[in-house]
Amino acid sequence: MARAAHGKGKGLKTMTVLNASGIAREVRSSYAFVERNWYLVKRYWGWELAFFVYTIASSLSVIYIGKAQQVNQNDLVLYLGIGTLVWAYLRAVFDAISEMITWERWEGTIEYTFMAPISRLTHMLGTAAFSIVYGMLRTALLFVALALFVNLDLSRADYLGALAVTLVGSLSFLGIGIMASVLPLWFTERGAEMTFIISSILLLVSGVYYPTDVLPGWMQPLARISPATYFLDGIRRSVMSGQGIAELWNVLLPLMLMGLVSIPLGVWVFLQVERLAKRTGRLKRNG
Amino acid sequence: MQTDAIVVEEIVKAFGGTKRRWLPGRRRAGDARPEKTVYAVDHVSLRIRKNEIYGVLGANGSGKSTLIRLLSTLLIPDSGRASVFGHDVIRDEQVVKRMLNRVSVEASFFKKLSPFENLMYATRLYGLSGAQAKREIPVVLQALGIPEDRIHRPLEQMSRGMQQKVAIARAFLTTPVFLLLDEPTTGLDPRSKLDVQEFVLRLRNEHDATVLLTTHDMAEADALCDRIAILDRGRIVAEGTPSELKAQAATPELLDPTMEDAFMHFTGKSIEEAEQEEAEPVAV
Ligand SMILES: Nc1ncnc2c1ncn2[C@@H]1O[C@H](COP(=O)(O)OP(=O)(O)OP(=O)(O)O)[C@@H](O)[C@H]1O
Ligand SMILES: [Mg+2]
Q: Cα(A7)–Cα(B271) distance, rounded to whole angstroms?
């Protein structure tokens, strides 16, 4: 019956399905992940709320450092405000995608998801789409909440530029997130903690709350390879100095390149580790 | 016409010991502790005919679940082959996945989501449209005796038996032609056991499914299965129809042996003894 519906894969087994109806089917299936994650957010609303309050509190405690300064107060508040908002967004995207495996291992559903007749790309596409929508909604809410406490002066902002940086910059975070998501498959015990290390190092080196040139010299290369550095720089330039897409090419280009490298690399790493897990029996067994 | 739907040839899966080293890595002197290799499935060959209910009996740790995972693409065999309706489980992974589904001892759902939400997710993965799923989910759940008011409440509030029925609904909704049932009735009360068994028969009779069933329940295997294989430490030690297996176990003293007796005859121990000997904390 349904056998005929599926394109047979030769070379890229797991990434197959090249005909149009196949692609439509995969896109439709990828919505399964968006919907499911949305259900999860709804069912775990208490946890979402707690985490949201935590994010507001920690953002404000950073922003008030700016407010306490005598000179350039408004600029500093905006500088730090952008830092917290961008970081909240990137963290949400990164977490949502890097938890793709952890969460299912914890619930005990991973074997069922891995047994389903979808390509791994569909799985990631759905998860990525959710993570970006979720990240944007959450960041918009956070912005509204922060604006109740401090004045974030957006009068000079070039919104198109900021949007371009957000969209292009999200790509590389998806790639890093996909790579990080396999850690729990590889290191079954400590994988989740390791993703936490990745995000905290990104926070340190990317200039979220300070310009990267205050970092010691040996850390500078890390700052330069972190996509968050360019992301933050781009958002600050578009929001604080009104730079548009044309002027932002020197952040958009590196972000684009990093996305183009990190996503295929992430997918490749994922597929390798998935094979390893299936060979060594490291998918979480349930029953 | 009797055709072989599922073909397994000399399949082997071992755990531990076969660890592949990612780095050529030096071994330190103190590191000599040799890792113990467990042959979970050891050169197993079997053929399941289309529309057959094929039982696999074995004690804890005899390799039943490992065999099921090998067939459902969750494990890659060390050697040997398996095919489902002519499609190799490794080479044609996606095609095979589309044809099968599985019910395991643990229901394996998102605990906080409702049966409805869990099944929406599962059916979308198998390409059902949202509208179709919304129509069919309540019908199937009710047919399995899940009260309507439970459908939208978190699954964790349900009893184990009910959760198991939701797991069966999941398999049913995705219309598998090959159904893998890993101890689907373990831990259920007699009433729920019968419900599940009835459903398995319906799937086979009305939906033309081919079924591989593992169980510890000798009476269940006897009643449900067309043919049975007895697995002992990863090897098949006997195969045949329930009456063939029982007949082979008959002795002048025991003219009318039960399935239990047959199990004893082929493995040298009763299922309880075997469980005690082989029970390993990691074997779920
Ligand atoms: N992923 C794994 N990693 C390591 N060892 C495993 C893995 N899966 C199974 N084993 C080992 O392989 C053997 C067979 O396990 P399996 O789960 O297949 O047995 P089973 O017949 O299903 O047992 P049960 O009746 O308890 O469910 C056991 O010794 C088990 O510990
Ligand atoms: Mg088992």
A: 45
Would you say residue B113 lies in a domain? no
What integer pLDDT is reported at residue B274 of this predicted model? 66
CATH (domain of B232): 3.40.50.300
The residue range of the domain holding B183 is 4-105+178-189+200-278
Residue nearest to atom 31 of ligand 1 (CA): B283
A17 in any annotated domain = no
Ligand nearest to the CA of B233: 1
Question: DSSP letters along A119-142, please?
Answer: -HHHHHHHHHHHHHHHHHHHHHHH
**Identity at A200, one-letter amino acid code:** S
Nearest CA to ligand 1 atom 12: B40
Q: Which residues of B touch A32 (CB under 8 A)?
A: 120-121, 124-125
- Which among A107, A118, A287 has CB closest to B182? A287
Predicted confidence (pLDDT) at residue B149 exceeds the cutoff of 60:
yes
Q: Is residue B33 part of a domain?
A: yes
Atom of ligand 1 nearest to the CA of B234: 14
Number of domains, chain A: 1
Q: How many folded domains does chain B comprise?
A: 1
Per the domain annotation, does A74 fall within a domain?
yes
Can you give the three-state secondary structure of A41-71, one letter per residue? HHHCHHHHHHHHHHHHHHHHHHHHHHHCCCC
Higher pLDDT, B102 or B270: B102
Task: Test A8 with B92 for CB contact under 8 angstroms.
Answer: yes
Model pLDDT for residues A132-183, shown as the tens digit of each residue = 999 999 999 999 999 999 999 899 999 999 999 999 999 998 999 999 998 8
Q: Is the whole model's pTM more than 0.80, yes or no? A: yes
Q: Specify the 3-state DSSP secondary structure of B105.
A: coil
* Domain membership of residue A167 as a residue range: 30-280
Q: Examine residue A11 and state whether it is found in any structural domain, yes or no.
A: no
Amino acid in the structure at residue A104? E
- All residue ranges of chain A with pLDDT < 50 are 1-17
Distance between A126 CA and the closest CA of chain B, angstroms:
11
- Band (B279; pLDDT cuts 50, 70, 90): low
Strands B79-84, B4-15: parallel, antiparallel or unpaired by DSSP? antiparallel
- Rounded to the nearest angstrom, the distance between the alpha carbon of A161 and the centre of ligand 2 is 56
pLDDT at A99: 87
**In a domain? residue A142:** yes
